[in-house]
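Review form for a predicted model. The reviewer records the input and the model, then writes brief findings.
Reviewer: anonymous (R2)
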Amino acid sequence: MPDQHWSKLRKRLENLICESLRDRVKFTVTNYRKAHDQLGRAFISVDKNEVFNMCTLTSNNALFEKEEELLDDLQLKYDVFNKEQNCSIQNKSHEIITTEGIFAQHDFFEAVEKYLNSSIEVSLQSNHIIIKILSLIDRRVGKRTLKKMADFIAQEKEIVQYFYHLRCEAEGLENI
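Model under review:
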C-alpha cells in the first residue's frame, strides 16, 4: 500500500489532470476484503467506461504462467532451495508482463509514487506504461509538447496511444 491514504493520493493525481479531461478521467482502487490477501485492483475510467485495468489476480496468474514458460524455455525445474534462480525468473517474468501491459494494483501504486516524485520531463520519457499515461493527461504538458510527440506515439503500446489521442482530441488537436 502507498505511503499515503488512497483518497489523498487520488486527490493529488486528479489535481494534475488537464482541465479538458478533469471531469472525464477517474482513478479507482478497489480492495476485496474477502480475498486471501485483501488486494484487488486499480483502474482508470474515461467517461465512466473502464479503459485500463490493473488487477492483482490477473497479474499474478500471468506472472505464474510466464515463470512456467521461462522455466520450460530454459529447460529448468523449479527448485525450492535455489533462491537466486527463483528470484531471477520471477523478476524477468514480472518485467515481461509489465512490458506487455499487465499490472497489479501494487504496480499502479509504485508507478503513481514514482510519477508524483519525478519531473514531467522525466515522466514523459519513461518506458513505464502507467507513468506515460499519467504524464499524457497531465496539465503541465502543453499543446506544443503533444504535437512534438506525434511522430513517436505510433511506437507506444495501444493504451498509451489511446490516452494520447484522448488528450489531443480534448485539446482540439484532432488532426494529429
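Findings: The longest strand covers residues 25-31.
Further findings: The chain has a mean pLDDT of 90.
Recommendation: see findings above.
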